[in-house]
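2024-03-11 09:14:02 INFO worker-7 job=invfold-0412 stage=load source=structure_tokens
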């Protein structure tokens, strides 16, 4: 816990804001969900490279302690992920909080408009946000996405049809 969250839970007594973290099982491997009582802040595969750094940035940006626990958004996403992986859910309703630059938020909002079961190239994604030459910036924004599955950056592929990169791993993207 200390390695991932930055400190043991007993060291968080002086924080006013508290986010709760919970481990969720999925058919693609374990995931970590972090939320407050209102919204989900992070949903990532536990093996994601640099997860500790992502959590540290989240903790600093929100000036929050992150402790083990469950909130309503975590309960909601756990149910929705189960339905999603069973093929019974296509649109998530769990409240989320997008923490990024205005450009990143623009990219992520457009990602959520990509229909379930379809893909789009980085260039097409850039054109969809009216910035056709910004495909590299779109790729960087995709990589900064902290809400795996919900913000479907896995639906973006290379122009030549190859899968390209994915923070959760190519095998998950292929699935």
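2024-03-11 09:14:09 INFO worker-7 stage=emit residues=175
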């Amino acid at each position: 816990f200390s390695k991932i969250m930055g400190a043991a839970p007993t060291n968080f007594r002086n924080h006013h804001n508290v986010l709760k973290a919970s481990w969720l099982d999925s058919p693609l491997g374990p995931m970590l969900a972090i939320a407050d009582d209102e919204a989900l802040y992070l949903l990532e595969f536990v093996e994601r490279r640099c997860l500790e750094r992502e959590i540290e940035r989240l903790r600093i940006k929100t000036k929050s302690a992150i402790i083990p626990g469950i909130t309503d958004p975590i309960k909601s996403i756990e149910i929705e992920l189960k339905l999603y992986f069973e093929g019974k859910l296509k649109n998530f309703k769990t409240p989320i909080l997008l923490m990024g630059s205005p450009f990143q938020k623009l990219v992520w909002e457009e990602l959520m408009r990509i229909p379930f079961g379809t893909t789009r190239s980085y260039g097409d994604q850039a054109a969809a946000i009216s910035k056709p030459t910004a495909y590299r910036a779109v790729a960087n924004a995709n990589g900064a996405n902290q809400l795996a599955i919900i913000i479907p950056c896995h639906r973006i592929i290379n122009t030549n049809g190859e899968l390209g990169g994915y923070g959760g791993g190519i095998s998950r993207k292929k699935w």
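2024-03-11 09:14:09 INFO worker-7 stage=report msg="Residues 31 and 44 are 5 Å apart (CA to CA)."
2024-03-11 09:14:10 INFO worker-7 job finished
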